[in-house]
Amino acid sequence: DMLYQLQIPGQLVAVSDYCELPTPTGREVAYDYPRAGTQQLPDLDTIVELDADLVLMTAEPTEDIANALLQADIDYLVLSPAADMDGVRENFVTLCKALYGDTTGAELASRRLTGYDHKYQRILDCLEDAAAAGEGPSTVYLAGDILQMATGDSFEGYLLPFLGTDNWGDEYTNYTFPAEREIELNPDVIFYNGMMSREAIAGSTCYATTTAGSAGAIYYIDPENFERQTPDIVDTLWEMGELLYPESFVAEEPGQPWESSEASYGYIPDTAGPETETNTETDTESAPESSSEA
Fold this sequence. Notes:
There is one protein chain. This protein is an alpha/beta fold and 294 residues long. Helix content is 34%, strand content 7%. It is built from eleven helices and six strands. The strands form two sheets. The protein has a four-stranded parallel sheet. It has a two-stranded parallel ribbon with strand order 1-2. Helix 4 (85-100) crosses helix 5 (102-112) and helix 6 packs parallel to helix 11.
């Protein structure tokens, strides 16, 4: 997803067996990429055959895999899942620098994150207004069954307090709320990721008589931005903020800087490959259509 946001799909030569490609829109082209295994079992033969220069991972490879990539003269970059919003931004900057070198990559990231930074600051301002108004509901984010919820060790569990709410799962781990404490649950707002239906949640003995259940404050939140952790996550946070604090989360006038447009995504440095410091071309049409770089 981040590579697509950088508008360089032509530099991507393969994806993992589990990758779901973004739906092409507008001027983007639909690509049918080769599959190159999984994080745990990468298809090294395919990676070498495709002449990749860089392998992107979300966890450290085993020693055997790292050595095999080293012997094939292929670099790898680990972008671990972010634990907080600073980590989301840092991963994007790190990716840009890996692809374009420190100088050009940092400039690219700064330009591409203009909308993200603006909306993120706007979210912080709205949360400050909400806190001043004394708002602060209790919440759960259901990530599966009735008691499978965002806990304190999860990214979603970090986001609920970030949004100024009291997370019922904060004290627990592994997305599990203890069954013996089910009777105590009384959230003001329930978010859910679609693994259960709204009707099933509202009709459950666990939530039917809670404050959220009685008020109908049960809201579906698409989990995709939580899972993929691209800069688009600010859109999901804004959506949640509007649901939690409608008086504080008021959109600015049309034309706000974070709105997506071809103009806002127009800085695409031409590149001869990763760690290229000297190219600063800004024409969107100069993005490579085909390459064997990552």
